[in-house]
């Protein structure tokens, strides 16, 4: 049985449901989803909707839309976003609100907190938040890239109980069900490991969306580590949503961790993006998640990438073992300078005066135990 007493859920809807033929928005598949959202709210469950589809919805307005030019795609997103929001708005008799985000918004701690506060405030006033990546302004450095992972980040920010990811298949299969008649669906996944990832391929060639089953598993891994039950379901059938409302599992249920990560640790590990690396000797022994200040310039072998104070870095050994993902208290330039000093006493006094390279309160452990 699926929990029915969720306080808050996030549901992710992809481009193929919004605009199946890339000729504007269609309510054909959205009616069942909208009714599900209405019924959830009537049961006292708050809902956040993560909706792709702006590029697909706006494509028909551009005769040269088949071009791969990113400028055209951004223009499609700008034109399609208003149509998509208008379509959703027509399906509800309560107000909705648009939230357009980039990864830069999510990985900046102050802006991330602001996103959380906005979501909570909208829900408190019974307004449905509708979230999408801001494709009109995003770049390779700023984008999440797919709304599966975005939905997991939003679910974490919203402190959701469940994440429901709509797909074009019933759930996760042990092999591609479109190519293999003997494919078997997994109804429950307790642990996400390499074997689970091997069951998923990349994005479907020629598909409308940008994700695939792999990005859905990545999203599930992010969500369950925050204590969020995650479901991959078939968003094209009304039966799917009726089963969820009745407390039944219509797809694949990824079970939430009993001991979820602390909110700030989860944000550091799953939402921030490393801007560089600090390499230490393979003999380095201290567990940084317990004693972050044991990392000094004396142990540093190399500094890779360019980063500023406050940027996220990965600390790893020179044999490739990743230790922690952390906020750097030093820029790469300064760290290189003190690490290359032949006078160890100078570096020691400098760090004693300036402070540690990383702090325990701003790191997430990456070591496999």
UniProtKB/TrEMBL annotation:
Its EC number is 2.7.2.11. One of its GO terms (cellular component) is cytosol. Residues 7-234 form the Aspartate/glutamate/uridylate kinase domain. The gene is proB. It comes from the Bacteria. HAMAP family: ProB. Keywords: Amino-acid biosynthesis, ATP-binding, Cytoplasm, Kinase, Nucleotide-binding, Proline biosynthesis, Transferase. Pathway: Amino-acid biosynthesis; L-proline biosynthesis; L-glutamate 5-semialdehyde from L-glutamate: step 1/2. The lineage of its organism: Bacteria, Pseudomonadati, Pseudomonadota, Gammaproteobacteria, Alteromonadales. Substrate binds at residues 52, 135, 147. Residues 276-333 form the PUA domain. It comes from Alteromonas confluentis. GO terms for molecular function: ATP binding; glutamate 5-kinase activity; RNA binding. This is Glutamate 5-kinase.
């Amino acid at each position: 049985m699926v929990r029915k007493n969720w306080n808050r859920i996030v549901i992710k809807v992809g481009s193929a449901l919004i605009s199946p033929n890339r000729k504007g928005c269609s309510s054909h598949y959205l009616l069942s989803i909208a009714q599900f959202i209405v019924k959830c709210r009537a049961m006292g469950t708050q809902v956040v909707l993560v909706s792709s589809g702006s590029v697909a919805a706006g494509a028909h307005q551009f005769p040269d839309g088949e071009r791969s030019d990113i400028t055209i795609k951004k223009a499609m997103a700008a034109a399609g976003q208003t149509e998509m929001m208008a379509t959703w708005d027509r399906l509800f008799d309560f107000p909705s609100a648009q939230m357009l985000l980039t990864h830069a918004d999510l990985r900046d701690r102050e802006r991330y907190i602001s996103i959380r506060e906005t979501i909570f405030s909208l829900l408190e006033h019974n307004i449905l938040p509708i979230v999408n990546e801001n494709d009109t302004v995003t770049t390779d450095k700023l984008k999440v890239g797919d709304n599966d992972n975005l939905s997991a980040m939003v679910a974490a920010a919203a402190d959701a109980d469940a994440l429901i990811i709509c797909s074009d298949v019933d759930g996760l299969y042990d092999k591609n069900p479109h190519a293999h008649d003997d494919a078997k669906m997994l109804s429950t996944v307790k642990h996400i490991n390499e074997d689970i990832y091997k069951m998923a391929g990349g994005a479907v060639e020629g598909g409308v969306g940008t994700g695939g089953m792999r990005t859905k598993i990545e999203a599930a891994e992010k969500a369950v580590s925050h204590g969020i039950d995650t479901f991959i379901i078939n968003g094209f059938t009304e039966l799917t949503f009726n089963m969820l409302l009745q407390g039944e599992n219509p797809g694949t249920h990824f079970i939430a961790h009993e001991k979820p990560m602390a909110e700030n640790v989860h944000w550091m590990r799953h939402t921030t993006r490393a801007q560089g690396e600090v390499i230490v000797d393979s003999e380095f022994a201290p567990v940084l998640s317990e004693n972050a200040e044991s990392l000094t310039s004396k142990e540093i072998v190399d500094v890779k990438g360019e980063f500023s104070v406050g940027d996220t870095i990965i600390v790893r050994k020179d044999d490739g073992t990743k230790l922690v993902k952390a906020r750097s208290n030093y820029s790469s330039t300064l760290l290189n300078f003190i690490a290359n000093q032949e006078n160890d006493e100078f570096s020691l006094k400098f760090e004693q005066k300036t402070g540690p390279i990383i702090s325990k309160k701003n790191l997430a452990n990456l070591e496999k135990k």
